[in-house]
Amino acid sequence: MSEKTREELIGEVADLIANAKRVVVFTGAGISTESGIPDFRGPDGLWTKLDPSDFTYQKFVGDKETRKKIWQLNKYMGLTWKEIEPNPAHIAVAELDKMGKLDCVITQNVDGLHQKAGVPDEKVIQLHGNMQWVKCIECGVRHSYDEVERWLDAGAEDLECVQCGGVLKPDAVFFGEAMPVHETMEAERRSSGCDLCIVVGSSLVVYPAAMMPQYAIQSGAKIVIINDGETGMDSSADVRIWDRAGEVMTEIIKKVKQKLGT
Ligand code: ZN
After folding, report:
1. Range of the domain at 235
2. Ligand 1 is a single-atom ion; what residues have CB below 5 A from it?
3. pLDDT above 60 for 1
4. Residue 117: CATH number of its domain
5. What percentage of the chain exceeds 70 in pLDDT?
6. Is residue 207's pLDDT more than 70?
7. Which of 120, 211, 245, 247 could staple 89 via S-S, CB 3.0–4.6 A?
8. Are residues 26 and 136 in the same domain?
């Protein structure tokens, strides 16, 4: 079955994109590992170094010591977030947008790299939130990470909302925390309305995020999966490329441009 060459597979994806009107790109941690962001679940993943039980919503909200620990970690991670740049795979997705092919990106990532690569904010649906923002769990007021960093640098250990005194929390979805309702519904709607869904760097095992490509299939869309590892939907893919995304995506976009004569 997988007798096709890499070149042929890339050509097939380029054909699908050239013929598609509404492309939804679904991304997971794998697209950002080439930018130096560690995969959470892989063999060198963050969860081999950190205790996932510290990242439950209940523990964060209920325990001041846990919060102190996580803000210290954030202070360290914050610098990393800022220095990290989008890689060729993020750039390729932004190229799809410039070509007028991209309906939206649905991402499990919290790194904001799609926006940094040039995809407009309103076209990025962040299923698991975004670490660049901090939000009050009581009144919902948001603060940028830069602001939070100034507080941490000034010696703050635990952060309270200036407006209502509520607990401030990174605006990323923690374990045990509900998925954001608006984003989840919007992702479901857009997945059901696309004619091509390209999965990049996700093993499609985290639900309900991994449902999105299934909605696309149910609505008759074609599915492309580019991931350097097994995924939960390999048998459903129209084209399956087993590789890291940066180089492959760049070649695909080059081919699409040739086909469209742009
Ligand atoms: Zn508040």
Report:
1. 1-37+85-128+179-262
2. 136, 138-139, 161, 163-164, 166
3. no
4. 3.40.50.1220
5. 91
6. yes
7. 245
8. no
